[in-house]
Amino acid sequence: MEESTLLSVTLKTFKKFYWLIILTMIIGGIAGRAIASKGPAPSYQANVSIFLKQKQPENMEKQFDDYPRFMNTAILLAKTPVVLDNAIKEAKLKVTANEIQNQITVTNENGSEILNIQVDHEDQTVAPKLANAIAHSLQVVLPKYLDVDTVQIVDPAEEDEVSEILLTRTNEMMVMGVIIGMIIGTILAFILNYMKKK
């Protein structure tokens, strides 16, 4: 009996103050949208692939042992000022190597001879330009530090292939705002209903 009475009161409250709940849901959705629009700007991601072949040593066993070290050294060199300073000049950017290091990711594809360079930048045109410039710089720098047979760009970064990385979730923020608005509206409806009874 008490449960049916509570349900009846709840339904009556919803019917009586539905406009308040809808209003708070709309305000919540607008607030969520506004918060999302003030978030960080999207980032753009460009990738370039390099074929990297180590010189064949006389001792094949030594080659097998040295290969992981060879690739790790190449990966580390790709993010050093020795490589990045040349890349910055080629891309005609007004930044330092330290400023862009965190925007660069260098990986080796499953122990293959392919080196992937990924650049994240807030400018869609700069991301591929910088990725390609790093690859060109590596072609010059790597032979000075490693026994390299081939350093060849096999898949250059293209501006029309750049991926947009959205750092904000506008739709999710709006839905969250609507849900919070509904909860607040429901609480206010019960408070107003209780006060009117008094």
TrEMBL record:
InterPro entries noted in UniProt: Bact_polysacc_biosynth/exp (IPR050445)
Highest taxon of source: Bacteria
Residues spanning the membrane: 17-36, 173-195
Keywords of the record: Membrane, Transmembrane, Transmembrane helix
Name of the protein in its database record: Polysaccharide chain length determinant N-terminal domain-containing protein
Organism: Caldibacillus thermoamylovorans
